[in-house]
Design goal:
The protein is an alpha+beta fold and 701 residues long. It is 31% helix and 20% strand.
Length: 701
């Protein structure tokens, strides 16, 4: 009877008003707990999926009911039931949706956890969180849930300075990484691949951006883990007593320098594996002495100088300059543009930049040159049959119509491109396939070895290959190098329209017109003068000693006017920098015997080069001895271009973390480059100085 009266009395009691500040604190704590539980936090006991197994009502109800002093008692009924009723009323009034946690957990286990917006949808509208001091004390529970949902949906594409009015169907833009500007995205753009969900905190964190973000734009996150580079270690120090001969293939590629520049200007140090020092050195034009005529396609110049980063060693600098074909006498060109139009190319710095680059090249060609276009995505297709450049508008129109979408069946495209090149083959002319891609091949033969075999077979037809890489986040640099090296061609990386102008217009002769094939270097060091040596770069171009005289072994090709530079760090006999001990056994038998007539006593080394003229099968030999007459007493006494190329070599080695340059600072590199910059009509050397300063700043982080 007494209990009934107490219940009746309680039923007439008005519940006390909720404390707004306490409720706000509780909601903030709940939001933080949700973030902690949903972002790689350890799963709750008995729940492998990692989702919260209870709702907020259970969270309040269970502890109260499980207390021994309340369980089964009348007091539990008197206190808990009214509290639960009040809580239900408040949640209903506030509009908090009822969440089926079991359904969410099942969806997560089936791979149906919340995803970014699908193709063709508009990104969810973001809410600008008010400053803490201006936040309303009685913000509703629905607002809190909306903020949580917005944060989860934006986990893979982070907002940068969001403004509500900007986020509509026509205002969303992707940051153009190469220029730092924003380019609009159409509604039909494909969804970006989902990235791992980052740890979110309150307030929402803004991802650091290497480029100044456009106000209210979306910053697209790149995935550098998908980029592939050849995993090679720097060349070791070798003892002349046991290994006096160094052999390697010529390399005129420039892709590594452009990629390094893209990384540094984007605010990040480059992957050391992406740095190929010889490509950085050979990126720049040098005024090395040229051959007088085409009978000898190139001339070698050797300089020996003190090493800037080690006073106990020297540098042996070998430079060659190819014969430059006059534009009026350049042979006819038969070019096939093999263009990747797969879905991965659907970025502002990929297909749109590619189309602009090829427009520049077409405008550079002569009227009687021929252009064909093959595209590949899921399947290969011929967009333009062989067409004379006299019909330039037809070619440019075909380029303008290109659109991206689909998977990447590169092997089929290669087959189709070579077929067209054979169809329009020009005898005694230039026949070349120009492959433009981000390097992603995922349909058909896709391993480097499979594609290498295809390219090796195709080069027998006398058709060269140029590989042009575009974009970031999906770059397969390793495959680009494999294709270029085995297709009698070269590789370049196009990160800006200015780079396209340099590669395809200013250097069109060296890019398109070969003057020597299968160019190989071999250097023999004199053990009486030199104790050790280290070749700087060319790790992916190493050849066996016997390959030098084997004309069946493929090597690099040199185009009209190309410069090729190779630098050795050499340790004179008796220098304190010698790293290898003398041999106890067999040294006399292993090292070449000293000649009694002292014919070669004054020589430091002997440089040999082999090459084939285009279309020929037998190689020719050029050789030159290196002696004291090639040496200068100081770094400052070396020719200007030699000093600048050495500065580039030092920079590349530091970026690739070669131990020999740990004590040589980026500022020392900049000083050496600045003092030897010389004439710089296109600004390439000034830009290099800027990159060195960027690397210096980024390395101090």
């Amino acid at each position: 009877m007494i209990l009934d009266k107490e219940l009746e009395k309680l039923s007439r009691t008005t519940p006390p008003a909720a404390d707004p500040e306490a409720r706000a604190r509780a909601l903030a704590a709940a939001m933080q707990a949700f973030d902690d539980a949903g972002n790689n936090a350890a799963a709750a006991q008995g729940n492998a999926k990692g989702w919260r197994p209870i709702s907020i009502i259970n969270w309040i109800w269970s502890p109260a009911m499980n207390k021994k002093f309340l369980a089964g008692s009348a007091l539990a009924t008197l206190l808990v039931i009214p509290a639960a009723g009040y809580l239900t009323f408040e949640l209903t009034r506030s509009g908090l949706p009822i969440v089926d946690q079991e359904k969410i957990a099942n969806n997560a286990s089936d791979g149906n956890a919340p995803k970014p917006a699908e193709t063709g949808t508009v990104a969810p509208q973001l809410r600008e969180a008010p400053a803490e001091e201006n936040r309303p004390a009685q913000s509703s529970a629905a607002d809190s849930v909306q903020v949580l949902q917005d944060k989860k949906q934006q986990a893979t594409v982070k907002p940068v300075a969001p403004q509500t009015s900007e986020f509509d169907a026509g205002g969303i833009a992707a940051l153009n990484k190469s220029e730092g500007s924003a380019a609009p995205l159409g509604a039909a753009k494909r969804a970006a691949p989902a990235a791992p969900q980052p740890q979110l905190a309150e307030p929402m964190a803004v991802a650091p951006s290497p480029l100044p973000p456009a106000e209210g734009r979306l910053q697209i996150q790149l995935d550098p883990s998908r980029e592939r580079f050849a995993n090679t270690a720097a060349n070791p120090i070798k003892s002349v007593a046991t290994d006096p001969v160094s052999t390697f293939s010529a390399d005129v590629d420039s892709a590594s320098y452009s990629f390094v520049r893209r990384s540094l200007t984007g605010g990040a140090m480059p992957d050391p594996q992406s740095v190929r020092v010889e490509e950085m050195i050979n990126y720049f034009p040098y005024d090395w002495p040229r051959p007088d005529n085409a009978d000898q396609p190139f001339k070698a110049t050797v300089t020996v100088m003190p090493t800037p980063w080690n006073h106990d060693t020297q540098l042996m600098h070998v430079a060659i300059k190819g014969y430059d074909i006059a534009p009026a006498t350049a042979p006819h060109a038969n070019l096939v543009f093999l263009i990747d139009v797969s879905g991965s190319m659907d970025e502002p710095d990929k297909l749109p930049l590619l189309k602009s680059a090829f427009r520049l090249l077409v405008n550079r060609l002569k009227a009687d040159d021929t252009v064909s276009i093959v595209t590949y995505a899921g399947n290969a297709g011929t967009v333009l049959e062989p067409t004379r450049v006299a019909e330039k508008s037809k070619i440019l129109s075909a380029i303008d119509r290109l659109e991206a979408g689909g998977s990447t069946g590169g092997a089929e495209g290669i087959e189709a491109a070579y077929d067209l090149a054979r169809q329009a083959f020009v005898k005694d002319g230039v026949n070349r396939v120009m492959l433009a891609t981000d390097g992603d091949f995922n349909v058909g033969p896709s391993s480097d070895e499979d594609l290498k075999r295809i390219i090796e077979e195709k080069r027998k037809d006398g058709i060269f290959l140029t590989v042009l890489g575009f974009g970031r986040g999906n770059l397969n640099d390793s495959l680009m190098q494999t294709l270029a090296q085995n297709g009698n061609g070269s590789a370049a990386y196009i990160d800006t329209l200015a780079e396209a102008q340099k590669t395809l217009v200013e250097e069109a002769g060296s890019t398109l017109f070969p003057i020597a094939e299968d160019v190989k270097f071999q250097v023999e060091f004199n053990p009486e003068r030199i104790a050790e040596y280290r070749l700087i770069g060319y790790e992916t171009r190493a050849l066996n000693r016997e390959d030098f005289n084997n004309d069946r072994v493929d090597a690099g090709d040199i185009g009209s006017g190309h410069s090729v530079t190779a630098i050795y760090e050499i340790t004179p006999k008796g220098s304190p920098a010698v790293m290898n001990d003398d041999l106890r056994y067999g040294a006399a038998e292993t090292a070449p015997a000293a000649t009694s007539d002292n014919t070669h006593q004054g020589e430091l080394a002997f440089v040999k080069m082999r090459y084939k003229r285009p279309g020929e099968d037998k190689s020719a030999l050029i050789s030159t001895p290196v002696g004291d007459s090639n040496a200068v007493a100081s770094v400052d006494a070396a020719p200007q271009d030699v000093r600048f190329s050495v500065a580039v070599a030092a920079f590349g080695q530091k970026l690739s973390r070669v131990p020999a340059l740990e004590a040589y600072s980026y500022r020392a590199v900049a000083d050496l480059a600045a003092a030897s910059r010389g004439t710089d009509p296109f600004g390439y050397r000034s830009d290099f100085l800027g990159l060195v300063r960027l690397a210096d700043g980024l390395s101090q982080r």
